[in-house]
Amino acid sequence: MQISLFITCYNDTLFPETGKAVVRVLERLGHEIEFRPAQTCCGQMHYNTGYPHEAASMMRRFLEVFRDAGAICIPSSSCVATIRDHYPKMAAATGDGAMIGEVDALLSRIFEFSELLIDKLGVTDVGAFFPHAVTLHPSCHSLRSLHVGAKPRQLLESVRELRLLDLHDADECCGFGGTFAVKNADVSAAMLSDKMRCILESGAEVCTALDNSCLMHIQGGLARQRSGVRCMHLAEILASTEAGDSR
Amino acid sequence: MNERSEMLEGIRRAIGSRGSDRESDYASIRRGYHQALPIDLPECVHLFVDRLHDYDATVHFCPVEGIAATVAAVLSGRRKHSLLVPPQLPPDWMPSNFEFIRDTGLSYGHIDRSEGVLTGCAIAIAATGTIVLRHSAGEGRRALTLIPDYHLCVVFEHQIVGTVPEGIRLMSEFGRAPITTISGPSATADIEMTRIKGVHGPRTLDVILVA
Amino acid sequence: MSIRVGDAAEAPSFPRAARALLGNTQLRQNVRRATEVIRNRRARVVGELSDWEQLRQAGHEIKQHTLQYLDFYLEQFEEACTRAGGQVHWARDADEANAIILSILGARQAREVIKVKTMTSDEIGLNHALEAAGITPYETDLADLIVQLGDDRPSHIVVPALHRNRMEVRDIFLRKMHLRELGDKPEDLTNAARAYLREKFLRVGVAISGANFAVAETGSVCVVESEGNGRMCVSLPEVLITLVGIEKVIPRFEDLEVFLQTLPRSATGERMNPYNSIWTGIVPGDGPQEFHVVLLDNGRTKVLADTESRETLDCIRCGACLNACPVYRQTGGHAYGSMYSGPIGAILTPQLQSLEHSESLPYASSLCGACYEVCPVKINIPEILLHLRAKVTAAGDAPFEERVGMEAAAFVFEDPDMLALAQKLSRIAQKPFERDGVIRHLPGMLSGWTAFRDLTPIPKQSFREWWNERESQRGDQ
């Protein structure tokens, strides 16, 4: 199947390894990946911080770039949530009937990475090998907007040699929240310290999630504490094989 | 009234145009929740008792002809000798050898000094263990079941309904009578979330369930 | 107009207030423990209802319908309540409501009133107004009493003194009730409150209450409570004044069948709270023989006018969103500068009063969505937060640094070449801050990030650069 990748501005700039991992996993499964270079950002940061007009112009670009794409893979549940939860509203606000229709037609083609694997491609075992103790942080958007449920767990449970450890208070927000982490830095840090405590108590070497944004925040705190626990996007774990690490 | 018309005018302006008429809009509210429970009366009674136990209320069982005897047994167990009763409590609920004082406009102070109160109720709701008073002459005015520290309430099995919707349906027919619903003894968890039985209402609630 | 929400207009910004509170170990322990207890109880009793989602939906639709015809239902309530012997007053703002209540009390020459938990009275600053007129208000809800005697502020919608532990309560009671000795067990403290208040219940002739629901069809008022202080207040005094926000009206008596299931389960995690009082006007020979209802607007019409956030008025004040909120659980309620705290406070306070007085509140959320998930009337709080954020920026009230940053980012995202260039430039710009492969300090607004977290520098190659490289290599093959 041909799959178009929306890498997200964030992964593009800060987490290229996640993008490479997505490509590696999907190609390993025999799919063809395309990357449309005209893509930039979904508009999440602007929309969530109170700049809907700026976000709307990013939505317009997104619609244009992916108009004729088939399945679109997005390795970030918060970006998928922005598209699913807010694009319809943003389009409606323009009053542009064609745009409303376009958003409508887009939604069924949008897949978060774990959704793509399980719902669209029907695989849970992607042939990964990862001999480490891992815990999963189910990010808020994946949990309460995408309702991915057990999907990431199913994928992790199928990875050979991976020991999946429970995370206490897993469904608690890590405190990232986009610009929240900057505008309310103290409260964000307090929430992060709770999350880190749970991660460290889980005994995991690696904390994974469907969102690099949460992971950057968690990783930043864990590194500042010199905890030795590292964060990795789910795609990077799934990309690992006996032949070598994803990196 | 200036404030009144200004407020209403402001509200109408804020609402703007309305799509449909009120009655049909109200009728379109989706009420997909359960109206009744798929259980029979014995199960309903069982559930009610279970809920009362959850609230730490004590439940005693008796046949219709055994109410007075059960009241006597309960009061002896509680070491009580004298209770207040509403003006029209059935006389055959009151055993001899105990004092029953009819509330014919007793002062709050008098009620406060009493050992407790014996009443009936209007209906009961199994799912939530709720006793409903409509403060009729057999249940007494509101102060009577509020100020005393002890409430002994007689509930008939046929008064028990399964769910809150069933209970509300019946309550909607009480007219302008004041309604008090009681689900266990008065309680608070305001200090460190520790549940304490009994703040201002009766601290002890005993129920006699009549078959 | 003097619309106000307590003294929230003078409150410090959320981040500033929060910073101070985060240092209060005792408060954080208390808040954490209390919210955890209620959350667990709520989860248990909500979990046993297979029709919970349908109840939420029905509650939402009933409220939305009511708001759509609010003028009709208020008039219907007034008519029914008046017919049953009540007197209905209309107050556009806090001052008008206080004046109405003071004139009722003045006519009776009342020097004291007993009060049952009414946040609406906190909203209009009623106790201040009463005290200024020489009238002593006695709060009768245990937590409200703790707050009042401690000269404190409520920190939770349902459990206003949850930030206090038993030792603190004991000290307050010893001092203010003039007691010689008092144990520190919750039972001891509760008994002290019982003794202190009982005399007042039996003696004071006027009570002020709020209302959980006002039924338009019948003119009935419903007060939901646990301790019995509500029953005392609404059924013992000769005069009862009930202060009702206009959004508290519901169309029909049978609509209670929804809210009396969802409210107790959401608020205290009980299947049903110990007591509900429902009364209609005046009942000869039973309870108050003079009954006043004050219908309060105080900014609610403004909320009603904004269709994007109108559902804020659906709120039944259960406090479930507070207990679920990871932000609230860190700071407690005082950070929100209002008696309406937590997620609902973050959307209600800025809408009731002017946004400029509380523009930090819509940002007091990580948008995790836990509030929406538990809300028994399905208020989409995250959506409304975003709507209010857009209003803050549209009013030009966003910080300068943020605005410039957002505009620059928007400009960059207009063009992929510009994005690629920005990625390159950022890699150069981060150099001065990078040490041994880590960024430990950034200037300006971003310093909030590096104060608590390390930052991994932007990698040497972006994804799109890698992709282009790979494509060109493939092309070469």
Overall strand count of chain A: 8
Indicate the CATH architecture of chain B: 3-Layer(aba) Sandwich
Number of strands of chain B: 12
The structural domain count of chain A equals: 2
- What percent of residues of chain A are in strands? 5-15%
Largest interface: B-C, 73 and 92 residues
Largest sheet of chain A: 4 strands, parallel
User: By helix and strand content of chain A, what is the structural category?
Assistant: alpha/beta
Measured by DSSP, the beta-strand proportion of chain B falls in 15-25%
Profile the largest sheet of chain B.
Answer: 4 strands, parallel
Helical fraction of chain A: 40-55%
Gap between N and C termini of chain A = 25 Å
Q: Helix coverage percent of residues of chain B?
A: 25-40%
Oligomer: heterotrimer
The first-to-last residue Cα distance of chain B is: 56 Å
**Series of secondary-structure elements of chain A, N-terminal to C-terminal:** EHHEHHEHHEHEHHEHHEHEH
Name the overall outline of chain B. globular
CATH superfamily of chain B: NagB/RpiA/CoA transferase-like
Q: Just name the CATH architecture of the largest domain in chain A.
A: Up-down Bundle
Mind explaining what this structure looks like?
The complex is a heterotrimer of chains A (247), B (211) and C (477). With 247 residues, chain A is α/β, with parallel strands linked by helices. Chain A contains 13 helices and 8 strands. Chain A folds into 2 domains: 2-120, Glutathione S-transferase Yfyf (Class Pi), Chain A, domain 2, CATH 1.20.1050; 133-239, Rossmann fold (3-Layer(aba) Sandwich), CATH 3.40.50. In chain B, a hairpin with a 7-residue loop joins strand 10 and strand 11 (196-197). Chain C has 22 helices and 12 strands. Chain C has helices at 14-22, 25-47, 52-68, 70-83, 94-108, 119-123, 126-132, 142-149, 166-176, 186-203, 229-235, 256-267, 300-305, 320-324, 328-331, 342-352, 370-374, 381-394, 400-412, 416-429, 447-450, 463-476; strands at 87-91, 112-115, 136-139, 206-209, 213-215, 220-225, 239-245, 249-250, 275-280, 290-296, 434-435, 438-439. In chain C, the strands form 3 sheets. In chain C, strands 1-10-7-4-2-3 form a 6-stranded parallel sheet, with helices on both faces. Helices cover 49% and strands 11% of the residues of chain C. The mean pLDDT of chain C is 95. At the B-C interface, helix 1, helix 2, helix 5, helix 6 and strand 9 of B face helix 2, helix 3, helix 4, helix 8 and helix 10 of C.
